[in-house]
Structures are given as C-alpha cells and as structure tokens.
Amino acid sequence: MELPIQKLNPKAVLPQYATAGSAGLDLCACLDEPLTLERYADGAAQGRWNCVKVPTGLAVAIPEGYVGLIFARSGLATKHGLTPANCVGVIDSDYRGEVVVALVDLGAEDYVIEPGQRIAQLVIVPCAQPTLVQTGALPQTQRGAGGFGSTGR
To answer: Which of 6, 67, 81, 147 could be 106's S-S partner, Cβ–Cβ 3.0 to 4.6 Å?
Structure first.
C-alpha cells in the first residue's frame, strides 16, 4: 500500500518509522519557534483547558477502507505527560487538510515543543463500515450486559 503525502509547508518533516518493526510513523511539529505547553493543572486551576494544536505541515490521503489514528509517543507520555487531547486522533479517508495534533500536558511541569520535534505517531489501520441493522434484541453472550470490571480482572 502507498500513502500519498503532501508537504504544505517547506519546513515540514516527512514522517518516518523509527525502526523496521514500528507500527506508527513519527509525526513532527512544524513550528517557526518553540511552543510552550502549560501543564494541565495550571489551566485547570484557572478554569480553562490547556490544549494546543500543533501543525505538522503535512496532508495525507488515507486510502479508502482505512483510517489514520494519531497516538501519543510513549516516551513523551510517560516522561512528560504529553498526550493527544482527544486520546486518539482520527484522520478519515476523505480528509485532505493539514494533519494537526491537539496536545495537552498532564505532566508536572510546562513542556516546550521544539520545531521539528517528534510529537505523536500515525498508525494506518483497516476501518470497517458495517451496515446497521436495527433489532428488538441482541444475541446473548455469557457476559451479557456486565459493564466495567464485570470479568473480575
């Protein structure tokens, strides 16, 4: 499969797989200068959400039948608390605009995002669009309607 990608900004860094076994392509910040992301606790105390939209300077053409999912980079998340504001970003196959990563800092300190820094990862996965069939009852399972923690684990 090919993934058509367009640089919308000459400073944009093309995504790369960090290793041969990487599932995600590293997305980089396309910034003119460093961007400081205030830690969430500071904003929460002031009654606002500290979320920044970090441009990548790129657009992609996700193939039909697939979706692009934007995930946190594990190192930034575990070391600094940097994570996508919506947990997982979704790029639909018919979207052709700039890939922008909404980030929030849940860490203990403000975080500075540098131009060209790897900020998230893009994973391309198949996406089914089933036909919905309304029914009066669903097939039964052993678990049934048991919710969170219902399996005892």
So the answer is: 81
